[in-house]
Amino acid sequence: MDIEALRRDTPGTANRIHLNNAGAALLSRRTLDAMTGHLELEAAIGGYEAAGQERDRVDATYANIARLVGGRPDEVALFDNSTRAWNAAFYSMTFKPGDRILTGRAEYGSNVLAYLQVARRTGAEVVVVPNDASGQLDTAALANLIDDRTKLVGVSHVPTSGGLVNPAAEIGRITRAAGVPFLLDATQSVGQFPVDVAEIGCDMLTATGRKFLRGPRGTGFLWVRPEALDHLEPYVNEIAASTWDGDRGFTWHDGARRFETWEVSYASVLGLSAAVEQALEIGMDPIGQRAIELGTALRDRLDAVPGVTTYDLGREKCAIVTAKVDAMPAEDVAAALAARGINVTTTDPTQTQFDAEDRGVHPLVRLSPHYYNTEAEIDRAVEAFAELAGAR
Ligand SMILES: *Cc1c(COP(=O)(O)O)cnc(C)c1O
């Protein structure tokens, strides 16, 4: 990996030490050009005409995403974020009183809110699987909890609030053996390290463009295993989802496209496609290796600073690092880092309430390097923490 060349292709690296790739990564010049090029084309010849001219490149987006996650192009649907992609899968399932939805203690806030709404509406029950001693989802407990009532297992692969990597493939083995649908929220893992739907054995997977994939804001996708389509009735119908057969009714489109809406931002779609293509070219193996290496180095070095503690759970950890200066509120640390040109964010206890209950440590400072960050940038972040810890 030619880090210097990749950084020259990433305008933002000249301005900031960007350790907020779990929030939104920096766009590459290539992704930016794909988007601005399409906007220029729309302005020059018309929006419909531009989409027509770029039809092949738009279609290639599905093939690129399919290659990225190990599926087929017709198993992919595009959305404007990961939440809507997830909603398209989740709200297309049917639940009745007594049905159970199993999730984990690291589940994303919006997913939990959706479970709670559907539980309130249908009489289904939300059951939260405990963590094991390492802080990852306890797969033995999951296997014990699964029974006839279990209609869905929904898990976040990597949470928004820390470096935990949940044992997705082990969960997949359990759900497949039990014949229970497995909805994997892979928003923080896709683009960060290799994620393969066959290896994991999930039935539905959702991801966003802007985070570790380095795509534009306002993009996301859903992957659905073809067999799972039999159990999903898309929760909205519209002209992009089905064919209107006159008075005879309608027929859903083949594959995952039945979940899509007709109107999309083609500039954003082409930006997402360019970002995915670039990730594939660089290779998800080296990307994951370097991102996790930088995250691990950052975590280990922060831990070695007196007055600084890190809080990441799990047996397997990723590039997301959560930390605290012991005597300083996380928001103040984040602001002090911003003043030094270092982009980070803080975790929100209201959005990760299971984990907030378990540990009471949020808000934490969240630092999330990616492969295009440098060791020197990691040094700067550690030095800044050391200064802040010493200054108190
Ligand atoms: C960010 C995030 C989401 C939501 O993604 P959007 O693209 O903002 O809708 C879902 N799950 C996890 C784990 C996330 O970190």
UniProtKB/TrEMBL annotation:
<dbReference type="Pfam" id="PF00266">
    <property type="entry name" value="Aminotran_5"/>
</dbReference>
<feature type="domain" description="Aminotransferase class V">
    <location>
        <begin position="17"/>
        <end position="380"/>
    </location>
</feature>
<dbReference type="InterPro" id="IPR015422">
    <property type="entry name" value="PyrdxlP-dep_Trfase_small"/>
</dbReference>
<comment type="similarity">
    <text>Belongs to the class-V pyridoxal-phosphate-dependent aminotransferase family.</text>
</comment>
<dbReference type="GO" id="GO:0008483">
    <property type="term" value="F:transaminase activity"/>
</dbReference>
<keyword id="KW-0808">Transferase</keyword>
<dbReference type="InterPro" id="IPR000192">
    <property type="entry name" value="Aminotrans_V_dom"/>
</dbReference>
<protein>
    <submittedName>
        <fullName>Aminotransferase class V-fold PLP-dependent enzyme</fullName>
    </submittedName>
</protein>
<keyword id="KW-0663">Pyridoxal phosphate</keyword>
<keyword id="KW-0032">Aminotransferase</keyword>
<dbReference type="InterPro" id="IPR015421">
    <property type="entry name" value="PyrdxlP-dep_Trfase_major"/>
</dbReference>
<dbReference type="InterPro" id="IPR015424">
    <property type="entry name" value="PyrdxlP-dep_Trfase"/>
</dbReference>
<dbReference type="InterPro" id="IPR020578">
    <property type="entry name" value="Aminotrans_V_PyrdxlP_BS"/>
</dbReference>
